[in-house]
Amino acid sequence: MKDISYNFGAIRDSIARLSSAELMKTNVSTTLNEYVAKTQSSPDLKKQQLIYKNIQDCKPFEKERLAERFLNQNLSMFKNSDWNQIIFENKQLRYDFLGAPDVSHVVVNGGDGRLFEAINTMIESVTNKGFSDFEAEGKAYDFILEHLTREVIEEEKSAEADDAPNLGDTWEFITKLAVNNFNERYEHLNESEKEVLNVLISNDSNKVEYLEGIKSENIKLINSLLESPDANQHIILKEFKEKIERMENISPNVIDTFILECIDLRQELEGIKMAL
């Protein structure tokens, strides 16, 4: 078994095996709960969680050009990410849940180990400015496409295969195709994950617009909650509101972080509102 210390897919599956063992013993997994909280709080971990899940679980494509668009769409999540930071967080994830590389749980390849390595290589190729192993990149790209275009089971075929060739390969058509088939192609994601992915793969101007919208939404929620009589809660809510109002002139390399924080905050605020 090959030790893959900092490949997110291998680390994730090793944590899953540990969680499964806990669940079998006690029906409760502290590891799983802490892992979910950890990935939710880190944009780089959340992006990796999404791309590994998308590529592993996506229904096969019948046409390679559609698989290429899908892969490039997922890789676009990382356009503002830094490889060194990704590796740092993956190392910390491994250490926190599985111990140091030479002790405790060993991170190993499972059945999808080669796919995990290919995804890891492609993420590095778009986030590491010094990346130069183009042969490895090409092999990784081809292997992922091979996975995405594996033999299609009849019932998995979708209308997406008939991609209106007469329209030509224009950006307008590509955008329309992506929108029309988004829910179908990403049906393995829950609604919250779909929202996050849809934002992360959009362009920077759309992200700015989305951030402004969710900021306004959260402020409205906070204002409505401030009408409750709980004075202790008011202090926390006002701190949230001040933090949102300070989110101005956000640079592209940190906007994903602020968006994900606002999405998480909205979920918390909605939970508070439902509890009242």
Please describe the structure with a list of short key phrases separated by commas or semicolons:
0% strand; single chain; 276 residues
Helix/strand class: mainly alpha
Overall average pLDDT: 81
**Number of continuous helical runs:** 12
Radius of gyration (Å): 21 Å
Instruction: Please give the alpha-carbon distance between the first and last residues.
Output: 52 Å
The rough form would be described as globular
Beta-strand residue fraction = under 5%
Query: Stretches where pLDDT falls below 50 for ≥5 residues?
Result: 155-180
Helical coverage, percent range: 55-70%
Strand tally: 0
Q: Biggest β-sheet: count, sense, barrel?
A: none
User: Could you state the order of secondary-structure elements as H and E?
Assistant: HHHHHHHHHHHH
Outline the structure in words:
The structure is a single chain. By secondary structure, this protein is an all-alpha fold. 69% of the residues lie in helices and 0% in strands. It is built from twelve helices and no strands. The protein has helices at 8-26, 30-41, 43-57, 64-75, 83-98, 113-127, 134-148, 171-185, 191-200, 204-225, 231-245, 252-275. Helix 6 crosses helix 7 and helix 10 runs parallel beside helix 12 (252-275).
List the helices and strands and how they pair.
Layout: H1 8-26, H2 30-41, H3 43-57, H4 64-75, H5 83-98, H6 113-127, H7 134-148, H8 171-185, H9 191-200, H10 204-225, H11 231-245, H12 252-275
Helix pairs in contact: 1-2, 1-5, 2-3, 6-7, 10-11, 10-12
